[in-house]
Automatic annotation (TrEMBL), chains A, B:
Key words of the record: Isomerase
One term of GO molecular function: isomerase activity
Source species: Reticulibacter mediterranei
Name under which the protein is recorded: Xylose isomerase
Organism domain of life: Bacteria
UniProt keyword Isomerase present: yes
Gene3D superfamilies per record: Divalent-metal-dependent TIM barrel enzymes
Domain Xylose isomerase-like TIM barrel: 33-253
């Protein structure tokens, strides 16, 4: 077991955790509570404006851990696919402008019942984007999602799958993003985190609530669920990852709380459980 | 792709699909609609009485595809574990009395955050039960559940895991039960179904709805969701399974329909999609 954290120097607020806050509100909240980093979402950045968001976070002196999300490779037509790839190129540029070198990819969903083809196309799409990512100094982080999202979000649903793609692509601008919510159940998680060594671009935490109140927006604050977060943190660190740790919690109840309280709770739970 | 079915000779009604029907109602419904087999649940059998249930199904001339469920190995104390093992021995006896040689096991949940220990204990518990299962002529079917049930139902969540346990136990009375709902997302499902050859004790079908209305009771009728059921049936048959196919659908909306309509719909969807 790794030793508990005693400071917040590696903590990052993923903006999904404070869904109702703007970029400015989230940045200012982090500064007030002493959270040194933030992970952005594209739709939030778009609301504030890209350049303005970049200016706000730069002036506040926060680090930017990642931008969510690229990917969403579900088009079946050549035209649809071209548009999606172009949109991902914009996402790469946005990441660079915001000052992060990690774009998180959600790799799916399938457009029909043909999962094997959808999986093959995801890999092809990532390969297509890699030269542009490298040009912009932005790494593509494949985030395997929980298998319960196979039908509507991601066809990449295990760390093993993400690792396999990274190994086949052999490109220094691709890696994996590990979110405990999505992978905690994996029977061979120890081996898969070891296999990801040197390719871990991000580590996200939250908790799995029992019962889960909502499949999308029912994730829990660390300590409220059943995930052994500290053990997973230890495995990720043994694999060499010592970067920022994003707290990303989609939770309807949390979103109704005042943002400062959410950040304070997040910080104390991070110290107690991560 | 396997050829579509043209008759109902391999169809079985898992009793969960007609949740509000008693054993007698379900058996009589199967006879009316021409479904030749049924899979029972213990709590339903208990309501009607074990001997009475056995008599009803025998007199109706239906086959019994399986009994759900044994397992539920989550006790941490020696006393608690002894009680659960005894309860599983009763389940084995009930299966034999009902005229089926398959007891379906739900293998979990974990009692705390220690998943590795919970997984090890599940395997130990199954090993402990196997001599009694063999004595009674009842095989234990490890049914991996979907990973979204890791927190509250089953720590065995992939076919790969179930296969590994079966391989390690090397006992002819243990095998796997494959439910498309639980395993359709597995990236290496083809290989895992091949690996299960000779050990497949049951095949369950339903569909994955998008969106899923409820994590437990939001499963879909075949054809209403995104699972390529026929492809999975083909893989299971290539692996040598030609036994009964249970339709097991936990769905609140379906349970409000008249039972005969559910069975007729199930039969026509089975012919069209399985």
């Amino acid at each position: 077991m790794p030793t508990p954290f005693t400071d917040l120097s590696r903590l990052s607020l993923n903006q999904a955790t404070t869904q109702h806050w703007s970029v400015r509100q989230a940045v200012e909240g982090c500064v007030r509570v002493g959270v040194p980093a933030i992970g952005f979402w594209r739709h939030k950045v778009a609301e504030t404006g890209l350049q303005e968001s970049a200016r706000i976070v730069r002036e506040a002196g926060l680090q930017v851990s990642s931008l969510c999300r690229g990917g969403w490779f579900d088009a079946l037509t050549a035209e649809g696919r071209r548009k999606q790839l172009d949109d991902n190129r914009r996402a790469i540029e946005e990441a660079a402008t915001l000052g992060t070198d990690v774009l998180v990819l959600v790799c799916g969903p399938a457009a029909n019942r043909d999962l094997p083809s959808a999986r093959a196309y995801v890999e092809e799409a990532i390969a297509t984007l890699l030269p542009y990512a490298a040009e912009n100094g932005v790494r593509l982080g494949i985030e395997p999602l929980h298998p319960m999202y196979t039908g509507d979000r991601s066809v990449i649903v295990t760390l093993e799958q993400a690792n396999s793609i990274v190994q086949r692509l052999t490109h220094e601008y691709v890696g994996v993003v590990i979110d405990v919510y999505h992978v905690w159940w994996e029977p061979d998680i120890e081996a898969q985190i070891r296999a990801a060594a040197g390719r871990i671009l991000g580590f996200h935490i939250c908790d799995w609530l029992v019962p889960t109140p909502d499949m999308l927006n029912g994730r829990g604050m660390m300590g409220d669920g059943v995930i052994d977060i500290r053990r997973l943190r230890g495995l990720v660190e043994e694999a060499g990852y010592n970067g920022l740790i994003e707290v990303e919690i989609f939770n309807n109840a949390l979103w109704e709380m005042p943002g400062d309280e959410v950040l304070q709770l997040m910080a104390s739970r991070y110290l107690a459980h991560a």
